[in-house]
Prior knowledge:
Strand content: 5-15%
Number of domains: 1
Order of helices and strands: HEEHEHEHEHHEHHEHEEHHHH
Largest sheet: 9 strands, parallel
Number of strands: 9
Low-confidence stretches: 1-10
CATH architecture: Alpha-Beta Barrel
CATH class: Alpha Beta
Strand order of the largest sheet: 1-9-8-7-6-5-4-3-2
Amino acid sequence: MWLKRKQKIASVDNVKGLIVPLITPLNEDLSIDFISLKTHISWLLNRGVRNFFLFSNFSENDFLSFEEKKQIITYVEREFSNKANILVGCFGESTEQIIEQVLFAEKHADYCAINVPFSAITNEIFFMDFFEELFNRTKSNIFIYNNPFLFKRNVPIIAFDKIAGWERLVGFIDASRNLEYFKSLSNYSQVVKLYQEPDELFYDSVNLNCSGIVPFLANIYPKFFLDSIKEVNSLDYVSIVKKNASFLSFIREYFPMRSRIQLIKYFLSGVGITQPFFNKELGDLSEEQKEKIESLMKKKALA
């Protein structure tokens, strides 16, 4: 097992195209629903997905304890380590919190995605200290996860410039929704793989040196994204604009930002893949929202 994992880690080119930021299936008492987790990942594998991101922005990560995360990581490794690449989100407010999670995750997964603590985002010396300590104490291949909505600010480009070529820094997942920021990142695409998270920027990222995308809707529409990645380079500008307009209209109609986790879980429960339960702090779905999702299941939109 160790030799096989070592070979996978060495081949970072495996992580390209579509990465699915997995939801966390729950039971009614909000414990982890491992049966649904296995069913969901198997369903995605059968549709061609080969890259999975645990504990992303869409996983109810804030409500999971470190012990629950350990259970999920261990379970996913046991069931799927030979079938897919696994990125584990290792997020925290301090250097120590992040490194503690990386040290556990790297024993079981292919890659770790980390945030930069706020103190390191706002101070260039602390920024360098953070990454030096991270790389000195851990062995994992690292993805930076940039999400200013969760971590207060973007990773500063001027600081990122100093580490972009570091050997085990292999990827940068941007959730900022800021195309100008992503254009600045694209200058580093020769040394760091770049990934765009927001579904809404899927088509916009085509010409920005993206190595792949991390769209939340891939939890239910993986085929749409896998097929689109293949065809998008052959489309002309007018076709891309038309497809983008149609896709954005679809998202606005059915998946408003604040209800996406709940709506995806409701959808997956309706087609028998997972249960519908989610942390109530996210807010309930309205009957109108449920009716829309039920009609969407019948339409088989996006395929």
